[in-house]
Design goal:
Elements: H1 2-20, H2 24-27, H3 29-39, H4 44-55, H5 58-61, H6 67-78, H7 82-95, H8 98-107, H9 110-117, E1 120-131, E2 135-149, H10 157-165, H11 171-195, H12 207-222, E3 224-235, E4 239-240
Helix pairs in contact: 1-3, 1-7, 3-4, 6-7, 9-11, 11-12
Length: 247
């Protein structure tokens, strides 16, 4: 039963590492503890002892390939009894097996490699309100955008920080990072386009020329190449404001 429980805990820890990267164990030890408790695979004493072990940096200081040696380190560094230290050492040795280490080495930046191989496609929906004082117009623009990522993306500071924290960051997560950045950029540009002139209603259908320019500029600043876009704009009817004293 003890050995089976040890394997379950090691498997749960492996799942945590697979999702968040190896550094997650030492960067977020309390979250690891919480996930272990919620999984039901670890009793509170073992989970708490493991938390203490992670906080003390035992994994960072030890190769975790010798259970007896590791148990001694845990007893010395964490002041745990031999029974608990032996149990934790078996868990960590199982977690840090050669097979798992190879799997993690193969996964390192695999999401980035996959992201670079495919076109970056997303849909953007812009909205702004033109207000000339006596009335407003709702402005809409929707576009399907296709860009091509380049190797320059590897030098992106925000992405580099994310990959440093979690080298197993998935292709979809990287896509989400750049999709949000592009959306925020286009939202701003569309707002500026629609509200630039207080006296002349914007021609929303003509935003496509600006959009192509803006996409080319964004690509140049973010490590992409412009491929194509299809878009269309429309505006609602002019809506007058009703003020006090109007009858």
């Amino acid at each position: 039963m003890v050995e089976q429980a040890t394997e379950h805990i090691a498997d749960t820890l492996k799942g945590i590492v697979n999702q968040n990267g190896p550094k997650y164990l030492t960067d977020e030890p309390y979250l690891v503890y919480t996930e272990l408790i919620e999984s039901g695979d670890a009793d509170k004493k073992t989970a708490a002892a493991l938390l203490h072990c992670l906080v003390n940096g035992v994994i960072e200081d030890t190769k975790c390939d010798d259970a007896e040696l590791l148990s001694g380190v845990i007893r010395r560094e964490c002041s745990l009894n031999k029974r608990m230290a032996d149990r934790l050492s078996r868990i960590l040795v199982t977690l840090c097996s050669g097979e798992n280490k190879k799997e993690w080495k193969d996964k390192d930046r695999e999401g980035l490699k996959q992201f670079l191989k495919e076109d970056f496609a997303c849909t953007w929906q812009g909205f702004a309100v033109w207000d000339e004082g006596n009335g407003t117009v709702d402005c809409h623009y929707e576009a399907t955008i296709v860009l091509a990522p380049t190797d320059a993306i590897s030098e992106d500071k925000e992405l580099a920080q994310c990959l440093k924290k979690n080298p197993f960051m998935t292709k979809d997560a990287i896509h989400g990072l750049f999709a949000k950045r592009l959306k925020d950029y286009l939202d701003y540009e569309f707002e500026e386009y629609c509200t630039e002139d207080d006296y002349y209603q914007p021609v929303v259908e003509d935003f496509g020329d600006n959009l192509e320019y803006n996409l080319a500029k964004w690509c140049n600043d973010n490590g992409f190449e412009f491929v194509s876009f299809e878009g269309a704009g429309d505006d609602g009817e002019y809506e007058p404001k009703f003020r006090k004293g109007w009858y």
